[in-house]
Amino acid sequence: LVVTSTSSNMSLKMLHGMTMYIAFAFVYPTGVFVARYFNVGRWLLIHQTLMGMVASNVFVAALTAFVGSYGDATFMHYKVGMVNVGLIALSTAMGYLSVRTVSPRMATVYNIARFLHRMLGVVSYVLGLYNGYLGVDDLTAGMTYNVGMTRAYLATVGICPVALFIYGEFIMPAEVAKKKSAGAARLTTTGSKQGGSQVDPASKVPEFTWEEVNLRVSLGAKWIVIDGNIHDIEQFLYNHPGGSKNLVRLMGLDATRYFHGH
Least C-beta-crowded within 10 Å: which of 1, 34, 57, 157? Predict the structure, then answer.
C-alpha cells in the first residue's frame, strides 16, 4: 500500500492521530483502572479487551506508517512510535506469562514477568502520551493553530487518567466502606429477626481465578493465597517477623504449604 496523494496523506494522518489520542487518553487508562480497582467477575476479560484495542491500534498504525509514504523515518514521532511498538509487545507478552505462572516453583519467573509487565506498561503509556504530543506538533507544523492544538492536547490528555485515579483511590474506598457498613447492619437485622441466626458473610465473598489473581498482583496488589482464600498482606508485609522477602516471593502464588510449615 503506497499513498501518493497529499490530501490522502493528511486524512490518514488525522485518522491515525485521532485513534491514537483515544487509545492513550481514554482506553489505556481505563484498562489499567479496571485491572487495579474492579472486583467484578469479568474484569480480566474487560482489561484484556481494552488493552488489546490499544495494542492493535498501535500495531496497525506502525504497519501503515512502515509500508505507506506518510511515515517519515527521520521524524522523532516515527522513531518514538516504533520504540513504543516494541515496548507494548513486550508488556503484552509479560502480562500473558504472569497470568499463566501459578506454581511456587516458578516464583522467580513469575515475579520477573509481573515486574516487567507493570514497568513496561508504565513506560509505554508515558511514551505514548509524549509521542502523541510529537504527533500533534508534526501534524500541525507550519499552521497558525499549531500552538493551540499542542496546548489543547496537553490540557485534555490527562483528564481521564487523573479522574480515574481520583475515583479509584478516594471515591471508591469511601463507597466500599459505606456498603460494608450497610451490609453489616443488614446482617445484624436479619440475624435478630431469625432468632439469632445470621447470614454467612463468606457467601458474599467474590471469587477469582488464578489468572485474575496473578494479573492483580502484577498491577500492584499484595495478595497471597492460603487454603484457597486470598489474603491482602499490604498492611502486614513489612511487619512480618521473618521479613518481607519471603512474602514478596510468594505474592500471587499458593502459599498454603509454607504457611503450615510443610
Answer: 1
Cell of 33: 483502572
How far apart CA 168 and CA 221 sit, in angstroms, is 14
Q: Residue 174 class from Cβ within 10 Å (0-12 exposed, 13-18 middle, 19+ buried)?
A: exposed
pLDDT digits (tens, 9 = 90+) for 59-92: 988 887 776 655 667 789 989 999 999 999 999 9
Which single residue is written with the C-alpha cell 484457597?
A: 228
